[in-house]
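User: Design a sequence. Structure:
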């Protein structure tokens, strides 16, 4: 499952276009999470790997507070598209899709091959998967399905079968049933 990160600015910013190059994003002062936050590390890596320095306006871990400050024109931010969905409907924020390259996270749901799975765990996984697929199928949510192509468990015996997402069956000979990956892609 791919989760796109977008450039967010105040709805009053009439100069904002629908797309922005990654290099142009890093020309702005940004509200970013604290250094220990997963998203901050990802954004810093993207900046440094493309020869840019991250310009930090302030550090805030709460997405809700970040959105509020962006809406009040305090600074701009890079946020998951699903995170700004409601604000776009209320017209509090504007977003631009980041291009050249896009910033995307890959979301994964996995189960340890070393741990026995119960019917209750499988039922919860099915429900979570169904909700995730529903969100991915909603064009407004900002997620899109991606095929699983990489080994998931680093165990060749378990990774040998195809790892296809499934809503209604147990994994057979695989450590993953309906895998989504939590890696990041630049």
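Assistant: Done.
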């Amino acid at each position: 499952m791919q989760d796109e990160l977008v450039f967010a600015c105040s709805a009053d910013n009439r100069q904002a276009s629908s797309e922005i190059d990654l290099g142009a994003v890093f020309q702005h002062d940004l509200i970013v999470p604290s250094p220990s936050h997963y998203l901050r590390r990802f954004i810093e890596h993207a900046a440094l790997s493309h020869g840019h320095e991250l310009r930090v306006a302030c550090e805030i871990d709460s997405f809700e507070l970040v959105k509020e400050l962006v809406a009040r024109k305090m600074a701009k931010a890079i946020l998951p598209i699903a995170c700004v969905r409601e604000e776009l409907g209320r017209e509090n924020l504007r977003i631009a899709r980041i291009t050249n390259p896009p910033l995307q996270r890959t979301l994964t749901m996995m189960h340890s091959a070393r741990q026995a799975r119960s019917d209750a765990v499988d039922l919860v996984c099915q429900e979570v998967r169904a909700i995730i697929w529903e969100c991915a199928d909603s064009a407004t949510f900002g997620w899109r399905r991606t095929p699983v192509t990489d080994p998931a468990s680093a165990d060749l015996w378990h990774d040998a079968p195809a790892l296809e997402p499934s809503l209604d069956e147990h994994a057979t000979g695989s450590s993953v049933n309906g895998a989504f990956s939590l890696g990041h892609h630049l």
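The chain has a mean pLDDT of 76. The beta strands are 2-10, 19-21, 30-32, 56-59, 76-80, 93-99, 103-106, 143-144, 184-185.
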